[in-house]
Amino acid sequence: xxxxxxxxxxxRPLPVQAAAAPRRRSWLRTMRGGLQGSEYTWALAFLVPYVxxxxxxxxxxxxxxFWMGSKLSLYSEAFSDPIYxxxxxxxxxxxxxxxxLEIFLALILSGFFxxxxxxxxxxxMLWVLPWAIPEMPAYIxxxxxxxxxxxxxxxxxxxxxxxxxxxxxxxxxxxxxxxVASHLWKWVPFWTVIMLAGRMAIPSEIHEAAEVDxxxxxxxxxxxxxxxxxxxxxxxxxxLTIFLVGDFNTPYFITGGGPAMSTFTLGTLGVVQYTLGMxxxxxxxATVLTAMPLIIPLVIILMRKLRTAQVQL
Length: 313
Known about the structure:
Blueprint: H1 16-31, H2 38-68, H3 72-79, H4 82-112, H5 118-132, H6 135-145, H7 152-161, H8 172-200, H9 204-212, H10 218-228, H11 230-245, H12 249-254, H13 266-277, H14 281-289, H15 292-312
Helix pairs in contact: 3-14, 4-8, 4-11, 5-8, 11-15, 13-14
């Protein structure tokens, strides 16, 4: 009987290394996102180039730019320049006028292109052409077209109406609004397509229900189209405002900042005047960075609106 009784032997505790091994494997699996073996290798092969590109072309330039504009004396030097304050006014007027006109015109024109018919589609293709043309040759052509002596516009005014056209690029505000008009001509087609896509995304049942209720014409636009496109309109406005703060091509190729540096914006002042003209790249970077108090709140609002739209979807 005694021989058949099995003596109780307590389980031996696992070695520390053996107990820690599963925990370590679990931690590694978590770090790898559940990928194992060749899956993890392929994930790294796809991820590493993107990380390298982000560091090389986003993180490093941004960090280097903030380092170049880190001295407070640069900002006091920029603020003491009267051209800087004239440039700030130009930039604010540029954003206020261009953004509101551009997005509003795009919203109105998108309603026209909602019409059915092959001729509407043909007009839409022609309407998009200015946006498809590269910026530099388009703006250089507009610059020569606006020349006061032998430009195409003044020659056409004299030939058709015997009217002497003004010197479009020789005064501050004529030159400045030539910049605004050129940017409108170039970018309204793009935002028209964006607004057209937003209109097409509105379910047809909503339009039909509104027509049954008698909402046609302006009432349909005010009570159906505007509320449904409000978020898209706001996001487009924020994006265009952020783009225009650093716009360089339009002011530079249309007027070059002239006459007498009166049509500079912050982008052209920092590059053309300070960086290239005065050989002060750090001052140029600091000039552009003075727009950050405006850009950062706009980016925060934009991210919140995009997050809200994502939650609604």
